[in-house]
Amino acid sequence: MPTKYRSAAEALDGLLEDGLTIAVGGFGLTGNPNDLIEAVRDSGVRDLTIVSNNMGVDGAGLGILLDNRQVRRVVASYVGENKLFAQQYLDGTVEVEFTPQGTLAERMRAGGAGIPAFYTKSGVGTPIAEGKPHAEFDGVAYVQERGIVADLSLVHAYVADPAGNLIYRYASRNFNPLVATCGKVTVAEAEQVSDEYLDPERITTPGIYVQRLIQAAAREKQIEKRTVRVREEASA
How far, in Å, CA of 105 to CA of 88, rounded? Predict the structure, then answer.
């Protein structure tokens, strides 16, 4: 059973220190554990390694940790949409380990499953594979990738129950279930914390993976890139 806390700051108390590796759920600005990210920012810890698909956008999501110069290294699949991230990478102030998106997902899953490494065709023959062990299977070259085990995982869910079981809403599911499994300690924020146990058939992340839990503050959903068009009237 996870311990429920009143705030993100309380939930992270005693867990944060300089130099941690933190895995964070979300894709763009969808499914970001914003309360927990803000608590990390407010704690002032530095030299962090962040494992996440991307680093949000300028001034939002994980971008606020870049604004505050708290990040030393990023393991991600995408730099776009965040000018500060790209600039810090080009300046050499933030080290970036690029990982194909599917490989990143599998590295998290493997870490959570206790699998130290696996082989994949993705990245073979590119800079991604340089310096990594290779092997041939059935006449095809593969590159070895290591599973990821983070010191701390931060996830955002739609509903949590007293046992810490989690379900996610639509696209917010993205990397969150994988992140939840690969942390030595996982802290979850949920939009709703139910007093009743969830239907087992609906659960995505079993509560065994979740050690600490908070109810997320209500906030307006952020849209990374709003695209609209003029509505056309239906023809007669």
Answer: 24
- Which pair of structure tokens corresponds to residue 76? 């991600």
Tell me phi and psi for residue 112, to 5 degrees.
Answer: -70, -25
Q: What is the pLDDT of residues 127-177, one digit of tens each?
A: 999 999 999 999 999 999 999 999 999 999 999 999 999 999 999 999 999
- Residue for token pair 């990397």: 175
At position 195, the amino acid (one-letter code) is D
CA dist 56 and 58 (Å) reads 7
Taking Cα atoms as reference points, which of 154, 175, 156 lies closest to residue 166?
A: 156
Taking the C-alpha atoms of residue 226 and residue 69, their distance in angstroms, rounded to an integer, is 28
- Whole-angstrom distance, CA of residue 87 vs CA of residue 82: 9
Residue 236 has pLDDT above 60, yes or no: no
Mean pLDDT to the nearest integer, 114-136: 97
Residue 104: name the closest of 180, 48, 51 by CA: 51
CA atoms within 13 A of residue 137's CA, in its CB half-sphere = 8
The string of pLDDT tens digits covering residues 195-204 is 999 999 999 9
Q: Who has greater pLDDT, 224 or 20?
A: 20
* E strand segments, the chain: 3-4, 21-24, 48-51, 71-76, 95-98, 117-120, 134-137, 140-146, 152-160, 166-167, 186-193, 212-215
112: left (phi over 0), alpha (psi -120 to 50) or beta: alpha
